[in-house]
Amino acid sequence: MIAILGGHRRFNELQRAVKGISAKMLSSELKKLEVNLLVERTVFTDQIPVIVEYIPTEYSQSLKDIISALAQWGEKHKTKITTDN
């Protein structure tokens, strides 16, 4: 969601933003987000090659504050998280 909340994103852009995720897993997660109305998938068939963009929905914007708080917590505790494992 962090990568998508930034705006319109294509599949490859999302895969680069989410380091280490396979194409199969990303595709599966995007489908789940779409089913749950958090992402809108837009296909532009008038272009070659066909372009597919994933757009955050208005509903997904309600997660912004929560995700921001989690990101801040992660940054604050990054050292502890990485050294305790």
Word description of this protein:
The protein is of the alpha+beta class and 85 residues long. It is globular and about 50 Å long. Strands 1-3-2 form a three-stranded antiparallel sheet. 51% of the residues lie in helices and 16% in strands. The chain has helices at 2-5, 11-17, 23-35, 64-76, 78-83; strands at residues 9-10, 39-44, 51-56. It has five helices and three strands, in the order αβααββαα.
Beginning-to-end CA distance, first to last residue: 25 Å
pLDDT < 50 runs, ≥5 residues: none
Structure classification: alpha+beta
| Sheet having the most strands | 3 strands, antiparallel
Strand order of the largest sheet: 1-3-2
Order of helices and strands: HEHHEEHH
Mean of pLDDT: 90
Please tally the β strands and state the result: 3
Morphology: globular
Helix content: 40-55%
